[in-house]
């Protein structure tokens, strides 16, 4: 029996080893090539899309592997140096024990990813997003050993900590996943991470040296001009009642939403006096309703809940049972180009992101800051690396504290001298510094066909920039785990 298993394994591995040797030979004289892999939806993985674009701009040809559930950025689709390879996701078997289903899925994905990677052009580097890293880290490392590719892991979070939310932190599967992630993570050649807190944790508990590269919002995340706000509001008003005007204008040449009004003859747009405040959020607003009813000088709220998570219908049902007079809810399905317009039109963002590890940052807040949108965010370990309490937003620990913050921010809305506008002013003034590429570039030394080159990652900065010093952001070749 053992001899038979060894023979089958040899028959499987021999073609792989031969193909790897052939790819090593091709790589020596080939154009520099990099594989960027995300075992998730490419369209909802902005950071990996940015990596692919940055690599292409640095002279590499790029193969981007991932699930194709959402449309990626047009820059990727139009870039001749980037090829997107669609991965197929194995659906749930729906029968048998959950552990067995999970095991079968992991084995299938391992064989499938191995085949996909071996079929791509020879790559000098494999960039991998983690999580999900099971079984991708081991497969990418194995392919790198065979084909001579170097593995770069971009740590967004820990996969085992996400599994722990479902199974509990001491479940055998979670403990096995943690061992796997730590063992194979140490075999990478270079590591990136999203926060300094994660960088410290990787160094202290995993013995992995990583470089912090903060997320950066895409260029289309910015404040929305008033005329585009009106177009978006009118578009949404045709489907969602909170965006509809409460009264028709007396002048038939005027076009009105709940927030804006346009003179169709002159094209001039203005904000309505006494308009409601627009929030992008998901939470309970009972206390704000009570404060408004008690006579506090607060505006009505239109709360837009975005996203399409598995609990979306559950919360829509809960919302339908509320009968607020001054708080309206809207759960629109937004087109990709409308989401940044909505953020750029809103008055406040509320983020309820709670990290499973406490070491990653919410990308939604990064995008909000790109739109100069002040944020109230629930606090956790490393949030201070992004949200500076009292400067560009507020952090809260519970519903009562959030309610008090909303009361303070929306008192006498829209007061030009109010705290809400002060936060927006701070974001506007620091915008150019925050995303200034002249000082914030992480330099990774990569090799292109035997010639030395550099790959520039442009991260975001959650705080005011330090005074640049020569080579202060350079990542030298000693930032490795081997």
UniProtKB/TrEMBL annotation:
GO cellular component: endoplasmic reticulum membrane
Key words, A-Z: Endoplasmic reticulum, Glycosyltransferase, Membrane, Phosphoprotein, Signal, Signal-anchor, Transferase, Transmembrane, Transmembrane helix
Keyword Acetylation: no
EC number: 2.4.1.142
CDD domains with a match to the protein in the record: GT33_ALG1-like
Transmembrane segments: none
InterPro entries (UniProt xref): ALG1-like (IPR026051)
Pathway listed: Protein modification; protein glycosylation
EC main group: transferase
Superkingdom, taxonomy of origin: Eukaryota
Topology class, membrane: Single-pass membrane protein
GO molecular function, one term: chitobiosyldiphosphodolichol beta-mannosyltransferase activity
Signal peptide: 1-20
Compositionally biased region (Low complexity): 470-482
UniProt-annotated stretches for the region Disordered: 460-482
Catalytic activity: an N,N'-diacetylchitobiosyl-diphospho-di-trans,poly-cis-dolichol + GDP-alpha-D-mannose = a beta-D-Man-(1->4)-beta-D-GlcNAc-(1->4)-alpha-D-GlcNAc-diphospho-di-trans,poly-cis-dolichol + GDP + H(+)
Location relative to the cell: Endoplasmic reticulum membrane
Protein purpose: Mannosyltransferase that operates in the biosynthetic pathway of dolichol-linked oligosaccharides, the glycan precursors employed in protein asparagine (N)-glycosylation. The assembly of dolichol-linked oligosaccharides begins on the cytosolic side of the endoplasmic reticulum membrane and finishes in its lumen. The sequential addition of sugars to dolichol pyrophosphate produces dolichol-linked oligosaccharides containing fourteen sugars, including two GlcNAcs, nine mannoses and three glucoses.
Family, similarity comment: Belongs to the glycosyltransferase group 1 family. Glycosyltransferase 33 subfamily.
PANTHER family recorded: BETA1,4 MANNOSYLTRANSFERASE, CHITOBIOSYLDIPHOSPHODOLICHOL BETA-MANNOSYLTRANSFERASE
Protein name per its UniProtKB record: Chitobiosyldiphosphodolichol beta-mannosyltransferase
Lineage: Eukaryota, Metazoa, Chordata, Craniata, Vertebrata
């Amino acid at each position: 029996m053992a001899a038979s298993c060894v023979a089958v394994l040899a028959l499987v591995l021999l073609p792989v080893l031969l193909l790897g040797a052939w790819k090593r030979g091709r790589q020596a004289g080939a154009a520099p090539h990099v594989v960027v892999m995300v075992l998730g939806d490419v369209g909802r993985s902005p950071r990996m899309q940015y990596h692919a674009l940055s690599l292409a701009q640095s002279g590499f040809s790029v193969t981007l592997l991932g699930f194709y559930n959402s449309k990626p950025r047009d820059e990727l689709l139009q870039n001749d140096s980037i090829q997107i390879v669609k991965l197929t996701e194995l659906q749930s078997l729906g029968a048998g024990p959950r552990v067995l289903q999970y095991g079968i899925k992991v084995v299938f994905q391992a064989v499938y990813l191995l085949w996909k990677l071996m079929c791509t052009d020879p790559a000098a580097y494999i960039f991998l997003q983690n999580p999900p890293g099971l079984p991708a880290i081991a497969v990418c490392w194995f392919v790198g050993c065979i084909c001579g590719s170097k593995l770069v892991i971009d740590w967004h979070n820990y996969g085992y900590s996400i599994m722990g939310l479902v199974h509990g932190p001491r479940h055998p599967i979670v403990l096995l996943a943690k061992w796997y992630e730590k063992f194979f993570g140490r075999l990478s050649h270079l590591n990136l991470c999203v926060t300094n807190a994660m960088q410290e944790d990787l160094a202290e508990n995993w013995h992995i040296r990583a470089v912090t590269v903060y997320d950066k919002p895409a260029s289309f995340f910015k404040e929305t001009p008033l005329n585009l706000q009106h177009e978006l509001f009118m578009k949404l008003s045709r489907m969602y009642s909170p965006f509809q005007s409460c009264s028709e204008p007396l002048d038939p040449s005027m076009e009105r939403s709940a927030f804006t009004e346009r003179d169709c003859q002159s094209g001039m747009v203005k904000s309505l006096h006494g308009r409601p405040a627009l929030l992008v959020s998901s939470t309970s607003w009972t206390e704000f309703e009570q404060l408004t009813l008690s006579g506090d000088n607060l505006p009505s709220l239109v709360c837009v809940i975005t996203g399409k998570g598995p609990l979306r219908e559950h919360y829509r049902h809960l919302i339908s049972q509320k009968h607020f007079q001054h708080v309206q809810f809207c759960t629109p399905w937004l087109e990709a180009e409308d989401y940044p317009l909505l953020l750029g039109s809103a008055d406040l963002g509320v983020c309820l992101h709670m990290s499973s590890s406490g070491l990653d940052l919410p990308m939604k807040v990064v995008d909000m800051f790109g739109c100069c949108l002040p944020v109230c965010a629930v606090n956790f370990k490393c949030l201070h690396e992004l949200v500076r309490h009292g400067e560009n937003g507020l952090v809260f620990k519970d519903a009562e504290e959030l309610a008090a913050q909303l009361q303070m921010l929306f008192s006498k809305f829209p007061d030009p001298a109010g705290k809400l506008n002060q936060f927006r002013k701070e974001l506007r003034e620091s915008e150019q510094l925050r995303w200034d590429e002249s000082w914030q570039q992480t330099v990774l030394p990569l090799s292109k066909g035997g010639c030395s080159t550099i790959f520039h990652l442009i991260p975001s900065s959650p705080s005011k920039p330090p005074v640049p010093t020569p080579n202060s952001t350079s990542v030298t070749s000693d930032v490795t785990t081997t």
